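Posting this for the archive.
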Amino acid sequence: MVKVLIYEDGEDDLVARYASLTSQHDVHVRHNRAGPMFWVHERFQEFGFKPENFQNGYGNPKEESADVYFVDGLNGHCFYLLSDLPKERTFVNSDSQTVNQEAKKRGFNVVGNESVDAIVERIIGRN
């Protein structure tokens, strides 16, 4: 089981994009504690997420350790986090074409058409 760390600011995006990973991997979530959403961690149990693996706020990426990282565009704030994460194992997963284009321009990986499941499998060497 590998550790997957997700930086996300949308509850619906978290479930839609990453619930499929929870049955086979140790999924951790760092999320925005401000804004219009109130994250109730227990609500995500029904989708396979473990409430104890959630953290309010994005923390310090330099202190994190995971096998694979997925980072939402976070309204452009992703670039503050990306520079502190291992580039070869970190993937931007944003609905914003502007963020995706800028990430590619800066040399970061972008999820694109590949599923997060396939990316994790590829990164851990199973494919």
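The chain has four helices and six strands. The mean pLDDT is 92.
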